[in-house]
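The methods section describes the discrete structure representation at length, but only in general terms. What matters is that the chain and its backbone geometry are given together, residue for residue. Nothing conveys this as quickly as seeing an actual entry. For illustration, here is how one protein appears when written out as sequence plus structure tokens:
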Amino acid sequence: MAGKSRHNGQPMKSPLPAKANAKKNTVAGRKKMPAADFGVPAKKKYRIDDAAHARVALGRVAQNGNSAEKKQVQARVARRYPSINVTGLKSGKKK
């Protein structure tokens, strides 16, 4: 049932434009992306090339990133997308 909703059997729709991301969603496409399109450019982690990916990156780094990565991703997203609120994000890790 991969790619289908459990409720109505219809394919799930991505919130991202299909054509814009089709070439980037491959290993080769990701390698061709400039480092500036990532929250952690040195490692090419946490893609932020558009607002939707920037929001996802903030969530992922809150769950899995170390404190340096969190600060870097938050700063890069805030600079690139001023309309996205990056303050007050909480870690997804439980104590």
Remarks:
- Residues 33-80 form one domain.
